[in-house]
Design goal:
5 strands, single chain, 283 residues, Pyruvate Kinase, Chain: A, domain 1
């Protein structure tokens, strides 16, 4: 039977862990509030821009702009957005599983790793990583998304890749995230009803000027939205994970305390029996 001192040390250790997980939960809750505000502010604009650009790509000629034109290349570029840190439940694992399945289905695409967890995971598996962006979520800014989008546009316009995809966690609620795989480039064309009369837009000023300004902005906004969604989902997942860890630590403390009381009771009972046995022994 273990000594009472060892059990007390275990209880003290679990209590210290519980304090850490509780503090991490509170920090994630505070960060989640700010991340949600930024995400909800950007989401309607990004989705409306995607809707307009998909409609525009459907009606415009593919050769009107390089970001509309499909390429004959066979390779695919995949942007994997993960967290830089762990302790956030299945947040990173879900993304990595989805990205691994995508890689198996698309014949070893090149990767752009956004987040340390994804970079480390695919580096160990000898997957070719074209670029990596680490530590950007500590102070996420729009110019970071601009830089990533600019690199993706240059890679696509070079003709080396047929398609560019984003894989990230979309924020649904504090306890729920959804893995999303979206085609970023070329901008997807919609399926029109063949019986519907074909209508084109009236462009003012010149269509080339509009495409040159609007299409790169669209790519930037979709990358920005993916980063904001991922940040909010990460903080929600970490808050839920730390809340569960805090409750589990409380259950462990209760079990250890009960066990300690049983051990102490057994020791007291043994001492009483020894005293009574000694008193009953004839001199």
């Amino acid at each position: 039977m273990p000594a009472l001192l060892d059990i007390r040390r275990r209880i003290r250790s679990v209590k210290n862990t519980q304090q850490i997980t509780k503090a991490m939960k509170m920090v994630s809750a505070a960060k989640l509030r700010r991340a949600q505000e930024a995400m909800f502010a950007a989401r309607p604009y990004a989705r409306k821009m995607m809707e307009v650009l998909n409609s525009l790509a459907t009606r415009a000629q593919p050769e009107a702009h390089a970001l509309l034109a499909p390429h004959a290349a066979s390779r695919t570029l995949l942007v994997v957005v993960t967290a830089d840190k762990g302790l956030c439940g299945g947040f990173n694992a879900n993304i990595l599983r989805a990205a691994a399945r995508f890689i198996e289905e698309h014949g070893e695409p090149e990767l752009v790793a956004v987040g340390r967890r994804g970079r480390d995971y695919f580096r160990r598996r000898q997957v070719k990583i074209r670029a990596e962006h680490l530590g950007i979520f500590q102070a996420l800014q729009y110019r970071t998304a601009q830089g990533i989008a600019r690199d993706l546009i240059e890679a696509y316009e070079s003709g080396a890749f047929a398609r560019v995809f984003l894989v990230f966690n979309e924020f649904k609620s504090v306890i729920q995230q959804r893995v999303v795989i979206e085609q970023l480039l070329p901008i997807q064309r919609l399926e029109l009803d063949p019986q519907e009369p074909t209508q084109d837009y009236i462009y003012e000023p010149d269509p080339n000027v509009i495409f040159e300004r609007l299409l790169p902005k669209h790519v930037e906004m979709q990358v920005w939205r993916a980063l904001l969604e991922s940040v909010a989902a990460e903080h929600g997942a970490r808050m839920a994970a730390m809340d569960a860890a805090t409750r589990n630590a409380g259950d462990a403390i209760d079990r250890l305390t009960l066990y300690m009381n049983k051990v102490r009771q057994a020791a007291i009972t043994k001492e009483i029996i020894e005293v009574v046995s000694g008193a009953g022994t004839p001199q």
